[in-house]
Amino acid sequence: MAKLAGVSQTTVSLVLGGNKQGIVIQEATRQRVLEAARTLGYVPDPAARRLAAASNNLLGVFSFTATFPTDPAHSYYPFLVGVEREAAERGFDLVLFTGSSSGGGRAAAPGALERVRLADGCLLFGRHVPTEPLRRLVDDGFPLVHVGRRDEIAELAWVGADYVAASSEVVSHLVAAGHRRVVLVREDDDAPASTDRERGFREGLAPAEGSVVRVGAPADELTAEWVRARRAEGVTAFVAEETDTGAVWRALHAAVTAAGLRAPDDLSLALLGSPPPDLPLATPVTGFDIPRAELGTAAVRALTDLLAGQRPGATLARCAFRPGATSGPPPPGESP
Fold first, then answer.
1. Three-state SS string across 185-219, please?
2. CATH code assigned at 228
3. Can you provide one Gene Ontology molecular function annotated for this UniProt record (predicted)?
4. Element (H, E) at 223
5. Pairwise CA distance, residues 214 & 188, whole Å
6. 85-141 per-position pLDDT tens digit
7. In-domain check, residue 334
């Protein structure tokens, strides 16, 4: 392999071992070694890699969110509870890469992800992830598990929730109540969690009609006037997606309130997920609950499987439907 790549055997060992020593290796050299490994069909021995890596039982947690989710009010916090419990059960300590948030200012910086090599393997959180830095880590054989479905890199392991089935169940509930015009409001991006929810929304619609509205600035675009205009068009049910910020739901709920409307008397509201913990409501919201702590546990198990040289199976957890009290039949005179 060294001959094919035109480098020394020491360089090959450094590249394939993840270069934990931090020795400067030019990117072109590293790519030649990796290409030679692929050409020769090199498959690293898991046991040998563990010995070479001098494992110290540390699992990393890297978040691409705006704020690292250590606040109990953060939507990702329950995932961390599951992560911590399972890591402790398996005898691992955690390394929290808090500088990965925008508060640390280094999430998108070149080489930011390379810091996770300080741990034996790493868990990743976030709606949006940088594909190329992740691909380099995966190509190097560094153990990674993303919490949430990701298909951009086939070799990247992940655990996720079945948002398609859960979203379909929520919308089917609205349709069964008699709603025939339903609108979904979602963020204007293509995060897998959003596309899965939209797919479930469409699957649950029949025989109703539905439309999808993408918003880039929810607080500015979702206004009382917007809600009244949709109601004038015959929309009787509004559905929002849950995100880590809760921005769409916050804006929709505020717009309905500003329009002087109440759910479920004047319209029905549903949330594809759970409302933000810091936004307490008088009545429970129709939607579904994500098994966050259980997914955190599953993520640690998947990561430790990778560390043991095993490929973990896919985990797609079921979300529990929540009937809530914000949905009901359409207002009188608007039933089909």
1. EEECCCCHHHHHHHHHHHHCCCCCEEEEEEECCHH
2. 3.40.50.2300
3. transcription cis-regulatory region binding
4. none
5. 5
6. 999 999 999 998 876 555 444 555 556 788 898 899 999 988 888 888 888 899 889
7. no
